[in-house]
Protein: Spermidine/putrescine import ATP-binding protein PotA
Organism: Ktedonospora formicarum
Amino acid sequence: MAFLELTNISKHFGRSTAVNDITLSINQGEFLTLLGPSGCGKTTILRMIAGFETPTIGNILLDGEDITYRAANKRPMGMVFQSYALFPHMTAEQNIAFGMNIQRQPKDYIKRRCAELLELVGLAEMGRRYPHQLSGGQQQRIALARALAVEPKVLLLDEPLSALDAKVRISLRNEIRRIQQQLKMTAIYVTHDQEEALSLSDRIAVMAKGKVEQLDAPENIYSHPQTAFAATFVGNSNQFRGVVESAVDGLCRVGEQALRVSPLTQLHSNDNVLIVVRPEDITLQSEHTQDNGNSLSGTIELRTFLGPFTRLHVRIDADTTVIADIPNQQAATYTIGMPVFLAFAPQACKVLPLASTDA
Ligand code: ATP
């Protein structure tokens, strides 16, 4: 049995459904991220685990015990919010000590533990400062220490890095992962930032409209997306709407063009599909050759230097522009207005079924 189990959880607010029949198992020590666009139900799931909301249907088991209706303050959870939520009139140390004081822990234990936690979050010298004397990143470290102080069985993090600037976000993200691994803490993290999810998680639950679209390791979410939504929400992508021509031969029709894809086992002729190709899987050629499986002709419209690579925007017809990421050394060869061929292998094409309801 998993450490934390959510079984057939739904949450309705009046007539609207925030969470729609979700079943999730989280292992002890696992870092699971709920990733999805605004309003897909991520925070509602976290709040049900924390005990701030009660599911309309379904139950939650922690370590084999049903905690579905247990009060929030009786659950062994630590929570970190986007807004830090530190007590402004208390020093960093007093904030960290807060939960331990409520637990009536001995004074010398609290003192020792505060020092340990300040050290753990890299703020050993700042225990006496008040929140307004700390930067946003430092306040969030204190909030993390405060959540860990009560030795929770599960750490819940709701977009904890969203309010921070890019540099601090990356360094604190690495710190969160280091601390979680060091403590072997079970963690559930909510974000709409795919890079954060990919870099932090053991597994990601990609969510849309109250449902989990795919639950998988980050590498699989990126390389083997199972739904059109997961393929387009995570990572940059080129998307072609098409129709399966031959599933056995791996052939799809996209407008006037035929694209070679890997043989399709789950799809049939005439199925509507979305074909997704990552920009780093496309190479540019100056002449038409199908050695690589697919070759589309187009004209370079835009060239953007992005640091580690250069992104080319290539127009292939009136409605379609394809992006291709190429090494900077090659970029100088390609100029705006130049005709080129985009080559990509059948294996680079992720072919996803397109439901009639997919926008
Ligand atoms: P965000 O990233 O914007 O925080 P989210 O994925 O965390 O979004 P939730 O906050 O879980 O989404 O909200 C899911 C849906 O439930 C939304 O449509 C939201 O408006 C609705 N909702 C959430 N809380 C309540 C509430 N207390 N009363 C009514 N509707 C609510």
Observations:
- The domain at 236-353 is CATH 2.40.50.100 (OB fold (Dihydrolipoamide Acetyltransferase, E2P)).
- The mean pLDDT is 93.
- The CA atoms of residues 208 and 354 lie 15 Å apart.
